[in-house]
Amino acid sequence: MKRLTPLLTLLSGAVTAAVLFTMSAQASPPSTQPTGETGPPAVAAPPEADVDVEADAEAPVDEEQPDPASTRPAEVSPPDAPDGSSTEVASVEQNWIGQLENGATIAITVKGGKAEAYVCDGKSMEVWLSGTVRDGKIELTGNDAKLSGIIRGDSASGEMIVGVRRWKFTAQPDDKVVEEAVTKSGSGTAPAIYRASNEVRKAGIDGGWIMLPDGTQIGIVTWNGKPIPAPPLDPAFYSTVVNGVTIAAEPVVPGAR
């Protein structure tokens, strides 16, 4: 028994040491011992610099990205509308030729909203008028005379009043173009009305001519205050001879006088 006593003492010390070691391990700080109540430790996100680099690598280079303004459809101004809609009646250059109820011939020439008209029967009646043609409305006046009308499409109609007499009229556009006449008048269309030049009128002689679409002419020359049928104008010189006197004529251009 005495021999076992030291052995038992040694064994008892070893057991005590093992118990103390186990207790010491259980008492370690919670941060080093995961528990069932806490989740796995969080994984730190990569540095922001790395994230930006990856984003830049995925985004296309600025040079390859189209400019938003360049992808928009270009603003295109509406095309000019044809003369019938975009051009005001005031700027239309046109000749109108027709007849009055009494058989007299009427010619109206229009340019830039201004108008001149000549009415004659080729015998003794003649009237000169001037005024405007705007927005399809004709308003002309002369010596004790007034002419008003309206343009609808390819027809002009209205009424002329001279003193107490009234006559209705109708007219159609005359679009013929004669190169020599256009050059002489400086107009875009061949003149429809001619009148004795200023020099001739200063000498006491007047005259008017209407160039009809079929190439003929109608007019009156006033000689010493008396109207007589006008001889046709020579188309090469736009002049004629009356009683041995040469009468030169000029195209009537609205607004020129």
SSE inventory with pairings:
Elements: H1 4-26, H2 48-58, H3 68-71, H4 83-86, E1 94-100, E2 105-111, E3 114-120, E4 126-134, E5 137-142, E6 145-152, E7 155-162, E8 165-174, H5 179-185, E9 193-196, H6 198-202, E10 205-211, E11 217-223, E12 226-229, E13 239-242, E14 245-251
Antiparallel strand pairs: 1-2, 1-8, 2-3, 3-4, 4-5, 5-6, 6-7, 7-8, 9-10, 9-14, 10-11, 11-12, 13-14
Can I get a quick summary?
This protein has 257 residues and is of the alpha+beta class. The chain has helices at residues 4-26, 48-58, 68-71, 83-86, 179-185, 198-202, and strands at 94-100, 105-111, 114-120, 126-134, 137-142, 145-152, 155-162, 165-174, 193-196, 205-211, 217-223, 226-229, 239-242, 245-251. It contains six helices and 14 strands.
Plain-language structure description:
It is a single chain. The protein is of the alpha+beta class. The protein has a domain at 87-251. The protein is built from six helices and 14 strands. The chain has helices at residues 4-26, 48-58, 68-71, 83-86, 179-185, 198-202, and strands spanning 94-100, 105-111, 114-120, 126-134, 137-142, 145-152, 155-162, 165-174, 193-196, 205-211, 217-223, 226-229, 239-242, 245-251. β13 (239-242) and β14 form a beta hairpin. The longest helix is centred in the N-terminal third of the chain and has 23 residues, at 4-26. It is globular and about 165 Å long. Mean pLDDT is 76; it is low at 27-61 and 68-92. Residues 26-90 are annotated as: Disordered.
